[in-house]
């Protein structure tokens, strides 16, 4: 049939979890609302703290990116008010920002790995190599380069005809979900999008693995056992976040290309939400609340309170 026999799509509808029963909609909405508030409040408090406290203006504290603001409001509305509709161009804007934040998070993890690598392997040169200006330049570079690969995919899919079903079996608009709604062959565009995603995700991962190997070698050469444990503790925590971010994402992306490996829509959505939302939720606790600088902010206040009580 020719494309003129179809009705063109003017809006899309976010379905979310297709097997979820209606009686659980409100519970799921509250769950995602709690995640959103926790992520937003935690990162906002950190931004305010970094702005007010000059001692925290160091390279590792410059950027905190939240994926939740783009993905969760519409998902919450879908389960709270049964409002999952998105305009045609709004859906593509969300798709672009979803993939943009995914790419940006990958590049930020690369920047943090570079920061740790230089601090541990080149401690004497670190203060001159990784200054605030250097980290600001790297941050701006990440912000810019992260738009390129998602932009190519977004533009190519925007120009394709959507003239059939408009229900997106996912928590948000993304390339994999929209691919099934296009009424022409998308193998070339999807292969390009897949290759771009693999490049922006796993080229940084290759350097991250390399940096951690170098860090482990340097740590094993330390004479003091206490220094080893402190460094290993910091790197192990960051390594856990990196594993959560990359490993599940890899299985979601490669499942369609493996013949005997299948993933139900509910499992795919749950896995995507897990690796996308869990790191931003715990970022304030993992990367900041355990650091020496923030602990020192509260110690004088505690001592002052004690002296006041003694008086």
TrEMBL record:
Residues 42-287 form the G-protein coupled receptors family 1 profile domain. One of its GO terms (molecular function) is olfactory receptor activity. It holds the Pfam family 7tm_4. Its main location: membrane. One of its GO terms (cellular component) is plasma membrane. It is a multi-pass membrane protein. Keywords: Cell membrane, Disulfide bond, G-protein coupled receptor, Glycoprotein, Membrane, Olfaction, Receptor, Sensory transduction, Transducer, Transmembrane, Transmembrane helix. The chain crosses the membrane at residues 24-48, 60-81, 93-114, 135-157, 199-220, 232-252, 272-289. PROSITE patterns: G_PROTEIN_RECEP_F1_1 (PS00237), G_PROTEIN_RECEP_F1_2 (PS50262). It is found in: Cell membrane. Belongs to the G-protein coupled receptor 1 family. This is Olfactory receptor. The lineage of its organism: Eukaryota, Metazoa, Chordata, Craniata, Vertebrata.
């Amino acid at each position: 049939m020719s494309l003129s026999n179809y009705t063109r799509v003017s809006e899309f509808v976010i379905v979310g979890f297709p097997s979820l029963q209606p009686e659980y909609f409100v519970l799921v909405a509250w769950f995602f609302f709690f995640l959103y508030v926790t992520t937003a409040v935690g990162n906002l408090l950190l931004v305010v703290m970094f702005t007010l406290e000059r001692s925290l203006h160091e390279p590792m504290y410059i950027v905190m990116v939240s994926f939740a603001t783009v993905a969760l409001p519409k998902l919450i509305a879908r389960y709270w008010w049964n409002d999952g509709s998105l305009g045609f161009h709004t859906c593509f804007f969300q798709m672009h920002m979803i993939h943009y934040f995914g790419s940006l998070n990958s590049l930020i993890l690369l920047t943090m790995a570079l920061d740790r690598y230089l601090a541990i392997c080149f401690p004497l040169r670190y203060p001159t190599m990784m200054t605030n200006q250097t980290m600001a330049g790297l941050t701006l570079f990440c912000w810019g380069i992260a738009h390129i690969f998602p932009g190519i995919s977004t533009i190519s899919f925007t120009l394709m005809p959507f003239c059939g079903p408009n229900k997106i079996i996912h928590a948000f608009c993304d390339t994999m979900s929209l691919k099934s709604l296009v009424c022409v062959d998308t193998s070339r565009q999807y292969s390009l999008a897949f290759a771009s995603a693999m490049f922006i995700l796993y080229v940084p991962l290759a350097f991250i693995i390399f940096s951690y190997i170098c860090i482990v070698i340097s740590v094993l050469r330390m004479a003091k056992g206490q220094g080893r444990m402190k460094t290993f503790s910091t790197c192990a925590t960051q390594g856990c976040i990196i594993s959560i971010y990359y490993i599940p994402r890899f299985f979601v992306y490669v499942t369609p290309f493996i013949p005997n490996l299948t993933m139900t829509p509910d499992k795919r959505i749950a896995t995507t939400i897990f690796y996308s939302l869990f790191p931003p939720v715990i970022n304030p606790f993992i990367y900041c609340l355990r650091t020496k600088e923030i602990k020192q902010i509260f110690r004088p206040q505690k001592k002052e309170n004690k002296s006041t009580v003694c008086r």
